[in-house]
User: What shape does this take?
Amino acid sequence: MSTSTRAALLVCPASGKGRAARMAGTVAHRLRDVVDRLDLHVAPTAEGT
Assistant: This one.
């Protein structure tokens, strides 16, 4: 039986959308090499995150 690795990345724009996007891009790039599935969620505001 094979196992798959999944990860979810939640981006919170509280630190500024440009900075959050750059950080998310870097993390996503590194995770894609080690996980089978990566879900990226970008919150429209910092509320509820």
About this structure: The two ends are 35 Å apart (CA to CA). The first strand starts at residue 6 and ends at 11. The helical segments are 17-32.
